[in-house]
Structure prediction request, 133 residues.
Amino acid sequence: MAFTEIDHVAIAVRDLEAAIAYYRDTFGAEVEHREFVESDGVEEALLKVADSYIQLLTPTRPDSPLAKALEKRGEGIHHVGYRVDDVAAALEQVKAQGHMVIDAAPRPGSRGTTVAFLHPKTAFGTLIELVQE
Prediction:
């Protein structure tokens, strides 16, 4: 397994519209894609940066993992998404090496991607998302 590039840096925010306005007004960044991800209880706005994204995330329900993270840690970087050619193979390799995962199997992500999350406890405190386009 090898990362092919950084897919996105996810930033947890309480006010998605304010965050979008900040990036637009400060850096000229425009929303390229916006989506509700019901399974995760979030709304996202993706801002294109070269071949990657800044993913602004806000919870859509109080019991979502993101809502809990915001309550515990506040706003800021939530996770980093890395592109891989084959999420299933990458996930199996991570598990075979004894690392903790959040997703036991790949699942649908936003933009029609396939994703899987790795637990931060065995990734030096970083929540990692594997992304296959």
The CA atoms of residues 5 and 83 lie 5 Å apart. The domain at 5-132 is CATH 3.10.180.10 (2,3-Dihydroxybiphenyl 1,2-Dioxygenase; domain 1). The longest helix spans residues 16-27. The beta strands are 5-12, 31-37, 42-49, 52-59, 76-83, 107-108, 114-118, 128-132.
